[in-house]
């Protein structure tokens, strides 16, 4: 796997962005929380993720067949009975996919939660406490960063007697926190110097309250992005492990489907229906999670957000492309916008003929 | 600069239209490092099988016809004593090493001495006693009967030149960069991407092969090997091909061929006989009766790979036919759910709806386990699970990883598992792996050699001893009949399929491959007998 | 708001006092220092003494980097000090955290320079103020008590009607309003001393005055002792009773605000005042080569100049200035007006001509 | 200078800790290499071989793990990584040196390509917002979310075949010996195309995205406006001002990703049966080949650390702000 | 008064369009004369920077110029509208004719290039015929002009102090000898001593080189001292424009008066400060009529209903100044 390249890390140098107020929306009482949802990427990502979560919950109930049950139709293409065809044993691929969703989502989320909690505890403590503690914790996370995660996961799962989902999730969680911890530490370091943290201290707040109530809420975007990143990594890892047959998971997940498909040479036998859906399911889930991460990035860095709107529509319906360095000129008529004309004389008490209105702004 | 490149020659060959002169052989054995030591099982020479193209044994054994005597090879005659503790060999005249030196009886004595002295090289654990020579005659004595291991002693020990090997400091760890053997081929180039052997110009004791060049490639796994086979990149391999009709044959129906003769080594479901209620032979028998071997053969083994075992004795068709006791001749497995139910109820079990309850009234459940990556075993287990449910046994399939599985099986910590037996030139190895009381270890202690199910039968143990030490055919036959009877009646392991030493090959460029009609040699390119195949190949018309 | 316990105590009582306050920030050691014993440090604040009196505003003026904020943070006990003493009501205090620190906070509160940065963007105004009240036990017992206290606080800083602001987030307020919230938060502790670190420098010209006037009003009504830190000496004249001038971590002049601004004694104060924009001066007057006022850059604080830290820039530098640290000398024009400058040591001036050691 | 020294100390510590972990973790796997070997051959190797194999591998005596650990360090300092079990008796160092070049060539070159292309496209996307480059992101994100073993297998299925230009696997044509000649190089290139393409497709999006985001962030910096105000040609503003600065954070990311080359992409090597180091690791895992596992881990650890060091140095070179005078 | 170099005619600049859009600069008319220093003052958000960036088309997205003209009178040749120049021509125009010094010098200099590079690349772009050594010589000369030793040529921006960086920017602005230099709060980040030094230098250079300056700040007292004429902005409009002394002594617009009353004076008698009540207007919901009227102490009926137009007031020195306030009825509009 390549390293997660969420741009959150890159936002750190910019720093300010996170604490910056929303420009241009003072009057609205619309809370920042809902603002996040108004991002199209976030909305799309969350909707897709929601569907997956729903399937994870109800999948096993709505699956038309027992995913492991053998059936009479072997290696059949998609049909009305078997929407995604059948395997060499006559199992229903669609049911396997549905039932497998739970395991994927479960592992992704458990690993994400474990890694996030670890990274928050380690990263924020290191960043806030500083000194020797920081050095020790940083060294720890660096060691974990250096050890290759996937091989380590493979080894550890093979040590386990019966590496079920929970074990896989925990192992992934325990081995993949270090990157986020580093990011969080850097963020905490920069936040710790912020005035409002100092101000909270100066008001007399205790350290744990400062960390939990002043620092953490401002780290939510980073934490969320780290969480999403770990979920992606965990999902891919679980699937990879299942695909190469390392995990002993007895339950279905998409990796198991791919494992069987590959073991039975599904593609060579033209049984694309066996191989393709699981891969697409992964890709769509991954895309949804990435979209959420983009949205978080944009949310964190207003510069990125406004970067989305590169084309604007004039009142007359013309679109103008924004370019840095060359501000668009809509018209160069020297006519005033407001059609204001001077009024000869006004006596201070008198009434004036009103001739002007603000042009629509 | 290109002319002195090591690749120039190879490429030129191809360019000059001599392309047809080579044979591409592939094995799905993943990456290799250069190691041409013929004694080391993990060397590239062994993994890919080319050691048998360079080094030769004294006699050639045809796995597919195990009851036939070995074909004299470097030894022109092989004579065993009646107690199978002494073998007299006459070394062939005219064989030379690829460096030109003649092959003599001294080389043979040296080779066997080498194995005797190096425990690390004695992979068959052969109990050598004395090894002597006289002229072109060699006499080897053993401390025990070698009846069941004769094919190993004679057919699977490559003879190496004394004048070279006597200078090697540690024959167990030397990688033999320039192998010198008596075989028709010499190593031309060794590269990660492929290993090329070329035919000797002269000095071989038989007619030189038609195939001028052998190109060995090690593919990362079954799927890549299959892709290479299907595309014709590989012309000869031994690999599991799911749905071979479609994925392999159909790519070139005229030339792509599969041949999978069974041998005396089987795969079956080992049952942990210490666990209740599976310590009851009746229950095991009933289980044996419901397993649908045909389904397993077609669905898990792609209809060819582990040939279906039909005889109730567990002996494979063809290779095993000669050994089946009269009592069981013609007795074959058939799925008989009703019969199994009757058997069970007769033995005190009750079928409550679709749950089988044992005598104490507890439902009968079993855990089937095998490592996840072995998809044929996994499929088999899925089918067995389904079959067992017919008689109310609830089975659960577990997929521990390979290390865990291995340890558990050896320690007896499993319910039932698909596993193989050792293979050999007689049914001895099969029955020994399953029933030998000498190999049995208490639960919790690793039984490395066999009897994983802790099958306890002094009778079988005695019969095994009697068989291997017998000095006459009749007592062997009796012992074997006893073994078969115990195996059938006690069902310590439910045989499913046999090993095969076949091949997937292409007749596009080369013909003369072994087949059912003419199974003159094993088809698997890593077997010692593969040389017989190569020597038999002729260019396609 | 509840009444300040000792509101009757006479104005002028010393609340907070700093004596010889010194803060050196260690500089990360470089390779070549590994073998030398010397530890480099930023001499951010050296030997600073000041007193904050009840009902009075003391201004601390100085250019950027002169150590003003460091003084404030030392006084707020946010940094441990290198040496010197801080006395609260005459008692020496050194607290780092825990309840002692909170007791100290209850009496000494700080307002930060940047109202945009000193309020946590994720919390409402209500949260900020409630915390301040709760920590110091002024929240009362019931929810109504709390609500009352909150209203009182906001009323005090003229954010009326309070309910319009309580549930807003900081970003929904203007800069001036935010700074008022920050002040209200400080007042929630009912402190006796307020340390205001450039409280208006980030605010718009038109609303600065409002905040300053509010602070002045609080000083008068609550009898607060206020430390007003600024780089704008004109606002010190307008707002503060006393003015202290800092240069490169040291106090160089102090006294009554009007005196310090109208008849500055120290050459640095003069430079500062001359440099301030003066609408009355005409464009044409500008003389780019104002050598007599002093030029150049502020000194390095890691290796501060010996003697008087201003001497490399001082147009009046004398030989003694380059070697001896000047002591506080009474000027004599007004009581309490002093400067740390050898120009006011008659013996020195008699021996050495002012300006004789000017380096340029 | 001091900065570097501090980093070096930090690297040494990390290396020690990682190597120690690398020593102990594989030893916790149940089973032993002999069993793994027997199991691997599923009946092709009879159980009688067990004893001879224990003797052969030299693991017939019970050792104390601590003395083994000390021994391991001694060997490490002597540059000896032990003998591999899977490829017995080839020394681990030889196994590694055989395979590392393949990995470096395939994954290394691909990573560099991916970074270069991604950065280039990212610069375009960040600079010319609102043009066709906007469509780039969703597409590449989708591809980057596809597990690349899957992509690889699909690519093999769709693009390889008897008459296809693309070989289905392997590092070069059978029989070619690695050499810098007109036979091997083109063949190696040809064989690397599909795996490289797979890695490229799934990793390029990360670079595009981070470069685009950095470009956007940098584009609104004042000095960009100043560059425009100076009337500089657009290319110069985009490259010398915006991209140059936007590149900085990405360079360290790039260096870091170089460290993940070995550990990160072994599935591609498996799918394409590419004789690289990741594939060796996979085999070592399956065979309980501790010495080889340790060797691969050592390489990974060292490469990550070296990459980190490179990142530090690159930053030092590229960003004058981190260069301290004196 | 001398000839104009830059005439801004009814310039309108906004951020975004439609519902989301705000109009930050509204119908601004302003003339810069040759050789003068024109001060632009106003509180934060009044549109000063938007005006400065807008007239050179340097406004970052989502800024748009919705109308108006910026007529530039070159030293030789016919005047032309800057806003209608093609991209290539505007690139040539920039810096050669109008240079800008921005608020933060640290942020205005590219941190990864040496200052020499940043000085010479202007020359490279605008005067391609110059040789390498000529460029370096010119850059060195400019640095000397702003009092920075040539040994600093190869320094990186972070190696210079804030004041030096700002002087480098000024030197860079003058390197092509432009007619107009726009300075957007060039000294707010500096302390007073440095501020005076730099401004002193600038004024001296202006006298020597004869360019015109638009000087933007919110510090009115600074402007009064340094500029010839001052324009006061409020809510995107110019509300008053007059010679510096006239504003100082007798500001007509109540907002100008308020601004002046917000600065404590350092010299002279301590006067009570009045300040300006209320808070700056929200550009999205501008008050009707005069945008200042909700805060104006002197607001009366017409203020709420009608927008006053900038024009010459009827009072004595009305010829040289203009104001937009209903208290001072205009005689003729400007622009
Ligand atoms: N935490 C710190 N570590 C090291 N040096 C520091 C630290 N805080 C401040 N300094 C240094 O101490 C000196 C004084 O800083 P301080 O912030 O007190 O100045 P100031 O007068 O408040 O300046 P300003 O007007 O810019 O706020 C500066 O040189 C600064 O670089
Ligand atoms: N990117 C933007 N999007 C929307 N509104 C903006 C944007 N940038 C500036 N504005 C608004 O335009 C108005 C004018 O801003 P401008 O920066 O020109 O003010 P200014 O007079 O320069 O203020 P300051 O003294 O703070 O620099 C402000 O009200 C501001 O809120
Ligand atoms: Mg400060
Ligand atoms: Mg501005």
UniProtKB/TrEMBL annotation, chain A:
<keyword id="KW-1133">Transmembrane helix</keyword>
<feature type="transmembrane region" description="Helical">
    <location>
        <begin position="136"/>
        <end position="160"/>
    </location>
</feature>
<feature type="transmembrane region" description="Helical">
    <location>
        <begin position="42"/>
        <end position="63"/>
    </location>
</feature>
<dbReference type="Pfam" id="PF00528">
    <property type="entry name" value="BPD_transp_1"/>
</dbReference>
<dbReference type="InterPro" id="IPR025966">
    <property type="entry name" value="OppC_N"/>
</dbReference>
<keyword id="KW-1003">Cell membrane</keyword>
<comment type="similarity">
    <text>Belongs to the binding-protein-dependent transport system permease family.</text>
</comment>
<keyword id="KW-0813">Transport</keyword>
<protein>
    <submittedName>
        <fullName>ABC transporter permease</fullName>
    </submittedName>
</protein>
<dbReference type="Pfam" id="PF12911">
    <property type="entry name" value="OppC_N"/>
</dbReference>
<dbReference type="InterPro" id="IPR035906">
    <property type="entry name" value="MetI-like_sf"/>
</dbReference>
<feature type="transmembrane region" description="Helical">
    <location>
        <begin position="272"/>
        <end position="296"/>
    </location>
</feature>
From TrEMBL, chain C:
<dbReference type="GO" id="GO:0005524">
    <property type="term" value="F:ATP binding"/>
</dbReference>
<dbReference type="InterPro" id="IPR017871">
    <property type="entry name" value="ABC_transporter-like_CS"/>
</dbReference>
<feature type="domain" description="ABC transporter">
    <location>
        <begin position="29"/>
        <end position="273"/>
    </location>
</feature>
<dbReference type="InterPro" id="IPR003593">
    <property type="entry name" value="AAA+_ATPase"/>
</dbReference>
<dbReference type="InterPro" id="IPR003439">
    <property type="entry name" value="ABC_transporter-like_ATP-bd"/>
</dbReference>
<dbReference type="InterPro" id="IPR013563">
    <property type="entry name" value="Oligopep_ABC_C"/>
</dbReference>
<protein>
    <submittedName>
        <fullName>ABC transporter ATP-binding protein</fullName>
    </submittedName>
</protein>
<dbReference type="InterPro" id="IPR050319">
    <property type="entry name" value="ABC_transp_ATP-bind"/>
</dbReference>
<dbReference type="Pfam" id="PF00005">
    <property type="entry name" value="ABC_tran"/>
</dbReference>
<dbReference type="Pfam" id="PF08352">
    <property type="entry name" value="oligo_HPY"/>
</dbReference>
<feature type="region of interest" description="Disordered">
    <location>
        <begin position="270"/>
        <end position="307"/>
    </location>
</feature>
<keyword id="KW-0813">Transport</keyword>
Automatic annotation (TrEMBL), chain D:
<protein>
    <submittedName>
        <fullName>ABC transporter permease</fullName>
    </submittedName>
</protein>
<feature type="transmembrane region" description="Helical">
    <location>
        <begin position="136"/>
        <end position="159"/>
    </location>
</feature>
<feature type="transmembrane region" description="Helical">
    <location>
        <begin position="295"/>
        <end position="318"/>
    </location>
</feature>
<comment type="similarity">
    <text>Belongs to the binding-protein-dependent transport system permease family.</text>
</comment>
<keyword id="KW-0813">Transport</keyword>
<keyword id="KW-1133">Transmembrane helix</keyword>
<keyword id="KW-0812">Transmembrane</keyword>
<dbReference type="Pfam" id="PF00528">
    <property type="entry name" value="BPD_transp_1"/>
</dbReference>
<feature type="transmembrane region" description="Helical">
    <location>
        <begin position="254"/>
        <end position="275"/>
    </location>
</feature>
<feature type="transmembrane region" description="Helical">
    <location>
        <begin position="188"/>
        <end position="209"/>
    </location>
</feature>
<keyword id="KW-0472">Membrane</keyword>
<feature type="domain" description="ABC transmembrane type-1">
    <location>
        <begin position="100"/>
        <end position="311"/>
    </location>
</feature>
From TrEMBL, chain E:
<keyword id="KW-0813">Transport</keyword>
<dbReference type="InterPro" id="IPR017871">
    <property type="entry name" value="ABC_transporter-like_CS"/>
</dbReference>
<protein>
    <submittedName>
        <fullName>ABC transporter ATP-binding protein</fullName>
    </submittedName>
</protein>
<dbReference type="InterPro" id="IPR003593">
    <property type="entry name" value="AAA+_ATPase"/>
</dbReference>
<keyword id="KW-0067">ATP-binding</keyword>
<dbReference type="InterPro" id="IPR003439">
    <property type="entry name" value="ABC_transporter-like_ATP-bd"/>
</dbReference>
<dbReference type="Pfam" id="PF08352">
    <property type="entry name" value="oligo_HPY"/>
</dbReference>
<dbReference type="InterPro" id="IPR013563">
    <property type="entry name" value="Oligopep_ABC_C"/>
</dbReference>
<feature type="domain" description="ABC transporter">
    <location>
        <begin position="8"/>
        <end position="260"/>
    </location>
</feature>
<dbReference type="GO" id="GO:0005524">
    <property type="term" value="F:ATP binding"/>
</dbReference>
<dbReference type="Pfam" id="PF00005">
    <property type="entry name" value="ABC_tran"/>
</dbReference>
<dbReference type="InterPro" id="IPR027417">
    <property type="entry name" value="P-loop_NTPase"/>
</dbReference>
């Amino acid at each position: 796997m390549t390293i997660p390249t969420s741009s959150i890390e890159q936002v750190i140098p910019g720093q300010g962005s996170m604490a910056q107020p929303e420009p241009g929306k003072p009057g609205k009482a619309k809370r920042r929380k809902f603002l996040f949802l108004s991002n199209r990427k976030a909305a799309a990502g969350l909707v897709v993720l929601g569907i997956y979560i729903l399937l994870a919950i109800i999948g096993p109930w709505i699956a038309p067949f027992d995913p492991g049950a053998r059936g009479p139709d072997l290696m059949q293409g998609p049909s009305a009975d078997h929407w995604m065809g059948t395997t060499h044993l006559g199992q229903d691929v669609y049911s396997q996919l549905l039932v497998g969703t739970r395991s994927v989502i479960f592992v992704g989320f458990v690993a994400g939660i474990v890694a996030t909690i670890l990274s928050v505890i380690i990263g924020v403590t290191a960043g806030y406490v500083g000194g020797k503690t920081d050095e020790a914790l940083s060294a720890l996370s660096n060691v974990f960063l250096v050890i290759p995660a996937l091989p380590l996961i493979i080894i550890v799962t093979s040590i386990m007697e019966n590496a079920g989902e929970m074990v896989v999730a925990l192992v992934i969680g325990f081995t993949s926190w270090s990157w986020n911890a580093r990011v969080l530490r850097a963020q905490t370091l920069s936040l710790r110097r912020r005035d409002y943290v100092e101000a909270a201290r100066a008001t007399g707040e205790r350290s744990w309250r400062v960390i939990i109530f002043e620092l953490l809420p401002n780290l939510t975007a980073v934490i969320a992005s780290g969480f999403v990143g770990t979920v992606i990594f965990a999902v891919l890892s679980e699937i990879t492990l299942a695909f190469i047959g390392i995990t002993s998971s007895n339950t279905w997940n998409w990796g198991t489907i791919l494992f069987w498909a590959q073991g039975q040479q599904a593609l060579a036998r033209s049984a694309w229906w066996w191989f393709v859906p699981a891969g697409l399911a992964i890709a769509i889930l991954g895309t949804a999670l990435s979209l959420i991460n983009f949205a978080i990035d944009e949310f964190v860095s207003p510069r990125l957000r406004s970067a989305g709107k590169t084309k604007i529509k004039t009142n007359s319906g013309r679109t103008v492309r924004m370019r840095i360095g060359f501000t668009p000129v809509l018209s160069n008529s020297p006519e005033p916008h407001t059609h204001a004309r001077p009024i000869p004389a006004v006596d201070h008490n008198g009434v004036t003929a009103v001739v002007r209105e603000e042009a629509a702004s | 600069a290109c002319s002195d490149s090591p690749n120039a020659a190879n490429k030129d060959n191809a360019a000059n239209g001599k392309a047809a002169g080579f044979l591409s052989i592939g094995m799905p054995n993943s990456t290799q490092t250069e190691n041409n030591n013929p004694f080391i099982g993990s060397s590239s020479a062994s993994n890919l099988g080319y050691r048998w193209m360079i080094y030769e044994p004294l006699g050639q054994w045809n796995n597919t016809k195990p009851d036939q005597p070995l074909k004299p090879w470097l030894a022109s005659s092989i004579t065993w004593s009646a107690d199978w503790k002494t073998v007299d060999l006459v070394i062939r005249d005219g064989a030379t090493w690829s460096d030109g030196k003649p092959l003599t009886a001294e080389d043979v004595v040296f080779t066997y001495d080498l194995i005797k002295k190096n425990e690390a090289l004695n992979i068959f654990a052969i109990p050598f006693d004395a090894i002597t020579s006289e002229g072109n005659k060699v006499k080897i004595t053993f401390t025990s009967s070698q009846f069941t291991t004769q094919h190993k002693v004679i057919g699977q020990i490559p003879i190496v030149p004394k004048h070279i090997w006597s200078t090697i400091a540690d024959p167990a760890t030397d990688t033999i960069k320039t192998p010198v053997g008596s075989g028709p081929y010499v190593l031309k180039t060794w590269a990660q991407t492929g290993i090329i052997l070329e035919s000797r110009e002269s000095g071989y004791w038989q007619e030189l092969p038609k195939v001028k060049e052998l190109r060995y490639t090690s593919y990362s796994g079954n799927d890549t090997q299959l892709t290479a086979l299907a595309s014709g990149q590989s012309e000869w391999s031994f690999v599991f091909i799911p749905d071979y009709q479609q994925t392999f044959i159909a790519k070139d129906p005229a030339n792509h061929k599969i041949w999978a003769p069974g041998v005396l080594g089987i795969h079956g479901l080992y049952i942990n006989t210490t666990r209740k209620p599976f310590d009851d032979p009746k229950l095991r028998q009933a289980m044996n009766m419901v397993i649908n071997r045909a389904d397993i053969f077609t669905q898990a083994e792609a209809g060819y790979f582990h040939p279906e075992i039909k005889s109730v004795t567990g002996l494979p068709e063809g290779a095993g036919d000669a050994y089946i006791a009269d009592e069981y001749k013609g007795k074959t497995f058939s799925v008989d759910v009703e019969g199994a139910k009757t058997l069970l109820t007769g033995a005190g079990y009750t079928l409550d709806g679709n749950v089988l309850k044992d005598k104490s009234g507890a439902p009968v459940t079993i855990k089937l386990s095998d490592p996840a990556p072995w998809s044929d075993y996994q499929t088999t287990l899925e089918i067995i699970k389904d079959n067992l449910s017919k008689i109310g046994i609830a089975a659960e399939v577990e997929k521990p990883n390979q290390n865990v599985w291995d340890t558990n099986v050896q320690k007896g910590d499993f319910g039932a598992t698909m596993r193989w037996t050792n293979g050999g030139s007689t049914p001895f190895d099969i029955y020994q792996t399953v029933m030998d009381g000498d190999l049995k270890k208490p639960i919790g202690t690793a039984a490395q050699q066999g009897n994983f199910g802790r099958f306890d039968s002094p009778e079988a143990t005695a019969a095994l001893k009697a068989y291997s030490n017998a000095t006459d055919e009749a007592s062997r036959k009796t012992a074997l009949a006893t073994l078969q009877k115990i195996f059938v009646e006690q069902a310590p392991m439910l045989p499913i399929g046999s090993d095969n030493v076949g091949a997937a090959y292409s007749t596009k460029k080369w013909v003369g491959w072994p087949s059912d009609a003419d199974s003159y040699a094993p088809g698997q390119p890593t077997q010692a007998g593969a040389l017989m195949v190569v020597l038999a190949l002729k260019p396609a018309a | 708001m509840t009444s300040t316990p000792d509101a009757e105590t006479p104005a002028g009582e010393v609340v907070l006092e700093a004596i010889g306050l010194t803060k050196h920030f260690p500089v990360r050691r470089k390779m070549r220092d590994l073998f030398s014993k010397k530890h480099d440090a930023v001499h951010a604040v050296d030997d600073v003494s000041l007193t904050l009196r009840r009902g009075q505003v003391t201004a601390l003026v100085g250019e950027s980097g002169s150590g003003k904020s460091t003084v404030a943070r030392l006084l707020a006990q946010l940094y441990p000090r290198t040496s010197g003493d801080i006395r609260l009501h005459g008692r020496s205090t050194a607290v780092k955290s825990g309840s002692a620190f909170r007791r100290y906070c209850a009496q000494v509160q700080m307002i930060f320079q940047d109202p945009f940065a000193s309020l946590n963007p994720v919390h409402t105004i209500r949260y900020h103020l409630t915390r301040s009240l709760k920590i110091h036990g002024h929240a009362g017992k019931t929810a109504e008590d709390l609500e009352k206290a909150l209203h009182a606080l906001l009323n005090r800083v003229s954010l009326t009607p309070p309910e319009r602001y309580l549930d807003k987030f900081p970003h929904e307020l203007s800069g001036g309003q935010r700074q008022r919230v920050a002040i209200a938060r400080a007042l929630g502790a009912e402190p006796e001393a307020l340390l205001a670190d450039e409280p208006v420098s980030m605010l718009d010209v038109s609303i600065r005055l409002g905040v300053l006037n509010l602070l002045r009003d609080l000083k008068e009504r609550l009898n607060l002792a206020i430390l007003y830190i600024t780089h704008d000496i004109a606002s010190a004249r307008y707002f503060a009773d006393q003015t202290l001038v800092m240069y490169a971590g040291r106090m160089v002049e102090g006294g009554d605000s009007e005196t310090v601004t109208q008849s500055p004694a120290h050459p640095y104060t003069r430079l500062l005042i001359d440099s301030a924009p003066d609408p009355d001066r005409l464009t044409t007057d500008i003389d780019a080569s104002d050598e007599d006022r002093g030029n150049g850059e502020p000194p390095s604080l890691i290796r501060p100049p010996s003697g008087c830290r201003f001497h490399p820039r001082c147009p009046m530098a004398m030989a003694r200035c380059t070697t001896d640290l000047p002591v506080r000398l009474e000027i004599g024009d007004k009581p309490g007006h002093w400067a740390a400058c050898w120009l006011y040591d008659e013996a020195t001036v008699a021996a050495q001509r002012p300006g004789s050691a000017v380096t340029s | 200078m001091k900065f570097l020294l501090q980093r070096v100390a930090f690297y040494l510590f990390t290396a020690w800790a990682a190597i120690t972990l690398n020593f102990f973790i594989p030893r916790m796997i149940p089973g032993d290499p002999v069993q793994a070997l027997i199991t691997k051959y599923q009946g092709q190797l009879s159980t009688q071989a067990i004893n001879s194999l224990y003797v052969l591998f030299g693991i017939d005596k019970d050792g104390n793990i601590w003395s083994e650990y000390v021994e391991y360090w001694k060997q490490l300092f002597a540059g000896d990584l032990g003998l591999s079990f899977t490829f017995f008796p080839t020394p681990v160092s030889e196994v590694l040196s055989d395979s590392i070049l393949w990995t470096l060539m395939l994954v290394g070159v691909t990573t560099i390509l991916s970074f270069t292309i991604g950065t280039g496209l990212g610069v375009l996307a960040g600079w010319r917002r609102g043009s066709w480059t906007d469509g780039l992101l969703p597409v590449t994100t989708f591809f980057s979310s596809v597990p690349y073993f899957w992509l690889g297998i699909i690519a093999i299925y769709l693009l390889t075949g008897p008459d296809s230009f693309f070989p289905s696997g392997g590092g070069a044509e059978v029989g070619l010996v690695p050499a810098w000649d007109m036979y091997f190089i083109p063949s190696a290139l040809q064989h690397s195309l599909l795996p490289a393409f797979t890695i490229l497709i799934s990793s390029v999006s990360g670079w595009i995205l981070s470069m685009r985001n950095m470009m956007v962030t940098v584009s609104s910096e004042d000095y960009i406006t100043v560059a425009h105000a100076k009337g500089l040609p657009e290319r110069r503003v985009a490259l010398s001002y915006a991209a140059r600065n936007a590149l900085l954070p990405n360079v360290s990311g790039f260096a870091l990703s170089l460290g993940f080359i070995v550990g990160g992409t072994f599935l591609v090597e498996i799918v394409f049966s590419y004789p690289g180091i990741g594939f060796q690791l996979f085999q070592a895992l399956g065979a309980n080949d501790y010495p080889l596992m340790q060797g691969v881990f050592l390489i990974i650890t060292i490469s990550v650390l070296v990459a980190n060091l490179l990142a530090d140095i690159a930053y030092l070179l590229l960003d004058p702000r981190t260069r301290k005078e004196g | 008064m001398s000839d104009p170099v830059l005439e801004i005619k009814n310039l309108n600049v906004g951020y975004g369009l439609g519902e989301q859009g705000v109009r930050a600069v509204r119908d601004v008319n302003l003339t810069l004369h040759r050789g003068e220093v024109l001060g632009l003052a106003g509180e934060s958000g009044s549109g000063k920077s938007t005006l400065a960036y807008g007239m050179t088309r340097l406004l970052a997205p989502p800024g748009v110029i919705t109308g108006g003209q910026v007529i530039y009178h070159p030293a030789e040749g016919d005047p032309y509208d800057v806003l209608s120049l093609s991209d290539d021509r505007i690139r040539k125009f920039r810096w050669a004719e109008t240079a800008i010094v921005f608020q933060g010098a640290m942020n205005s200099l590219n941190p990864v290039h040496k200052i020499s590079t940043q000085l010479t690349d202007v020359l490279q772009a605008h005067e391609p015929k110059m040789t390498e050594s000529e460029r370096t010589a010119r850059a060195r000369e400019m640095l000397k002009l702003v009092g920075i030793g040539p040994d600093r040529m190869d320094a990186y921006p972070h190696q210079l102090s804030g004041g030096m960086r700002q002087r480098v920017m000024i030197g860079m602005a003058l390197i092509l000898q432009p007619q107009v230099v726009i300075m957007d709060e060039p000294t707010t980040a500096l302390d007073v001593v440095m501020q005076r030094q730099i401004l002193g230098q600038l004024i001296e250079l202006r006298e020597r080189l004869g360019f015109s300056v638009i000087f933007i700040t919110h510090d009115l007292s600074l402007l009064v001292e340094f500029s010839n004429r001052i324009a006061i902005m409020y809510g995107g409009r110019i509300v008053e424009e007059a010679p510096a002394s006239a504003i100082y002594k007798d500001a007509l617009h109540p907002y100008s008066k308020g601004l002046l009353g917000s600065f404590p004076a350092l010299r002279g008698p301590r006067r009570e400060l009045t300040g300006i009540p209320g808070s700056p207007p929200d550009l999205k919901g501008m008050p009707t009529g005069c945008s200042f009227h909700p805060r104006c102490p002197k607001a009366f009926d017409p203020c709420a209903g009608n927008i006053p137009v900038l024009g010459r007031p009827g009072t004595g020195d009305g010829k040289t100044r203009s104001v937009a306030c209903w208290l001072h009825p205009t005689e003729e509009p400007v622009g």
